[in-house]
Amino acid sequence: MAFWRKLIAPLFCCIIFIVIFISLKNSWIVVRDITPGPEYGLLLFLLPGLLTGLIYRDSPIFSSLIGALISVPVCTALRMVFYPRVRPLVQEVAYATSAIFWCVLGAMLIQLLFTAYKQFRQHR
């Protein structure tokens, strides 16, 4: 069962990452109304990391990193084919890097919560 979790966790992270990307680009999830401004939608990329951390507790950070790295080329290809290119390539790379960061941060938060809970249980 642990072997399947090693394979399923990054794949699941990849799928959720791509779904969030498509939802943000199609404006199914509207985070802000003004066009030039901060990208609050990047915070939604915490979800793949959080869910990956819940599925595979042994190494959630590595699993979410692998899942995000696998999904970035897919998202970039979708962006080039289906969506109009309004940003330079450097900004697209920065967006993808930020999305990877938030995904891994979600896994780190889950690992922090599990570690804090274990420490609380030991000292109780």
From TrEMBL:
Keywords for this protein:
Membrane, Transmembrane, Transmembrane helix
Domain of life, per UniProt, equals: Bacteria
Which Pfam families does the UniProt entry name for this protein?
A: YbjM
Q: Which InterPro entries does the record associate with it?
A: Uncharacterised_YbjM
Q: Which residues cross the membrane?
A: 7-28, 40-56, 61-82, 94-117
Q: Name one GO cellular component term.
A: membrane
The name on file for this protein is: Inner membrane protein YbjM
